Amino acid sequence: RGSRAMERERPMVTRDALVRHLCETMGFSRRQAKKVMEAMIDSMVRALQRGERIEIRNFGVFSSRTRAAR
């Protein structure tokens, strides 16, 4: 429980913040930036659903696991 409380206290980057960053750094309109974000997230979700591992150098590795029910 303690770690969950700590997670809530940490700053968080939201999808909207990433969209704003794309607008500022790439000169995209908000609509364009949202489309880019949605395409990236959709692509990642589909890869994870196929059981693939996603590795973004200097950022992180994403994979899905099947866990027993609680």
Question: Your description of this structure?
Answer:
- By secondary structure, the protein is mainly alpha-helical.
- It has 3 helices and 2 strands, in the order αααββ.
- It has helices spanning 2-9, 15-26, 30-49, and strands at 54-56, 60-62.
- β1 (54-56) and β2 (60-62) form a beta hairpin.
- The longest helix has 20 residues, at 30-49.
- 3% of the residues are buried.
- The model has no long low-confidence stretch (mean pLDDT 90).
How would you summarize the topology of this molecule?
Blueprint: H1 2-9, H2 15-26, H3 30-49, E1 54-56, E2 60-62
Antiparallel strand pairs: 1-2
Shape: extended
Distance between the termini: 16 Å
The percent range for helix content is 55-70%
What is the CA-atom radius of gyration, in angstroms?
Answer: 16 Å
Mean pLDDT equals 90
H/E element order: HHHEE
Poorly predicted regions are none
